[in-house]
Backbone:
């Protein structure tokens, strides 16, 4: 989490956006449904899709997923979803933004 740093510019039209993750500055609040343990690490997952409920549930589920293969499997039944992971290698480096699913269009532009 870097309050003065823009990661993506996103324009929404008839879509919703939800982001789930950990800032690394406070106790995590996301638990793995598989292990029951807190999901550690700094980063986030952002979901863009027509349904606000789907975007909220998917952002948390994908953040708790063990790896990208698991994230892709979770997303398989959903259409019209763009999913991004945001990870920080270290506090001095810019974040790494990866598209998990969807087509990167004019909706998102990496800074």
Residues:
């Amino acid at each position: 989490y870097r309050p003065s740093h823009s990661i993506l510019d996103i324009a929404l039209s008839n879509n919703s956006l939800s982001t789930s993750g950990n800032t690394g500055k406070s106790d995590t609040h996301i638990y793995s449904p598989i292990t029951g343990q807190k999901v550690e690490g700094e980063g986030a997952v952002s979901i863009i899709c027509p349904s606000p409920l789907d975007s909220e549930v998917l952002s948390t589920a994908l953040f708790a997923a063990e790896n990208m293969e698991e994230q892709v499997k979770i997303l398989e039944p959903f259409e019209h979803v763009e999913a991004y992971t945001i990870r920080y290698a270290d506090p001095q480096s810019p974040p790494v933004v990866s598209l998990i699913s969807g087509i990167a269009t004019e909706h998102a532009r990496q800074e």
Q: What stands out?
A: The first helix runs from residue 52 to 64. The chain has a mean pLDDT of 81. The longest strand covers residues 16-22.
